[in-house]
């Protein structure tokens, strides 16, 4: 390695060869707000980022467009309800997200990779971990941010429906209960989808792969499960329909809310899980959320510096 | 400028028999060093264990054995407290290309716990101090390597740490950029009052910048001493003068005059041009003046006076020899 040759060097000129920046250095004596504050800052930066805020104009287009696409049907339904004086909303609160599941999948596929792949790809992660925040803080901030972004995406149209329903003078108690059930459902959906999206996206620093993989997992699993359920239903194996539903994120939420949140099932023939099977749905949903969190922790412990 | 380490000095970093073993390699092998305030260079070839040491000192990677303290805090238990007080500039790229330097450094300042307003103010100050002006509003993707290195440095300094770890900050820079970066590093201590641990695989560049240099090889401590000691064994001054009618052998005249003033010289006989080039060892600042005066007094022309830096490998050999000589004197 060593080429033993004396290196001629100029007579050293002591002092600065740097441009002298004529401003004195000021030290910082103000507050240092520590881990919790840093985690909150990362959360809000990531949440804003999930809608392209604080990023380039180009990165705002898709999330904003999908947000509008999510809200427009709700607005139309309200207009119809008010105009035609319907006695009930044309769609259940709990059914709305299932109805627009493709839009939600597209959103998570585009935003989960942007939330985590960039830090991996440009090796920014070590800069976070050289600061007071720990692996768990980073994972929690990112997970919470994406889940919140999904909640905004899925709960806003429900809010539009609810406000519209009250304006149309539909029954207050009925509407409030149904709206609350819808919110519980989209909360679980947000946590589940965000977890799955982040786990997949954090596997690869390549954003394109991340997007494709999330879309594949979300839509292929839903397509496959729906197809199998339809086959089972036509083959008179109705009893297996709820069990098949355990194998895709969308049908998991569908089954859970059918069993416990007063939703009508979108499974073939409306054969949703009963309370017994529903308990399994709850366990699987909560287990998956916990597993996603655990996998993310493991992933980032390995990234280290 | 040279800081002599004494027992009274505050210790900024201390390691005690620190080892790090990976399944296949021993990255650090019973390393014991003490680092005081000022600029300290950590020199070693690729794979010597420099980055591994920094990761342990940040409390991010547990040592296999031994212990270490940074600013008096144990790395094994006080990682978060250490990371609040130190800054870190990684050796690799770490900047997202699609945000501006300002946006990025503000975010990193907040990650260090600075409130929003303070984060913005400190970012503006720090970017100016590292020499980024108008370009700081443009996306980082369009920056030159030198500018990117400055942004990396800025994010390590933005929270006004007590100590910064700079992992190969001159990597990829051209000679001018290198000198500017080294000047900046010097100022981090002299003007900002922040202690620095800077790594490099070139001893030469750190010699000029650091108060103290630690040389590691294969995870082992090879040498730890103040740079004045280093200069003594590593620099040689080469002088070449013209001949005149009064002094037909200018070289000899200078040699005699220097001898008369108690400065030893040796010529590099055997090399081409031998006899015309005079070599002095152990030159301090005053030696330059002395040579200049002597040459002027004799009425000779100074063709060249240059410092010959030895390659790091030679230092290893020299220090080995010194160690052999020192046998019996202990430590
Ligand atoms: N996570 C790791 N797993 C296994 N071996 C590692 C790991 N990190 C470092 N090493 C090994 O430890 C040794 C020291 O590596 P280190 O990165 O500390 O060297 P370095 O002095 O920083 O070198 P360079 O000048 O190339 O940056 C090398 O042999 C390296 O291959
Ligand atoms: Mg290294």
Automatic annotation (TrEMBL), chain A:
Organism from which the protein derives: Streptomyces doudnae
Keywords: Membrane, Transmembrane, Transmembrane helix
Membrane-spanning segments: 61-84, 96-113, 143-167, 179-201, 208-233, 278-296
Designated name of the protein: ABC transporter permease
